[in-house]
Amino acid sequence: LHDALPISLGEGVMDNLKVAEGQSFAAVRGEVPTRDVVDAIMTAEQSLQTAVAIRDKLVTAYLEIARMQI
Hints:
Layout: H1 4-28, H2 34-67
Helix pairs in contact: 1-2
């Protein structure tokens, strides 16, 4: 279960980025309203920021463990 978290989180971020990209291209073709594009981009940005924050916490925890004396 714990091993699946980073993979599913990464897949979710990539899915959100792909949706935002698709919405952007559809907007250029005049197929979707601008508001839908903005919503998709904001969702992608939020998921990316979450992934970066989790990565930073993991790196910090790893560094703390690495500094511990045995």
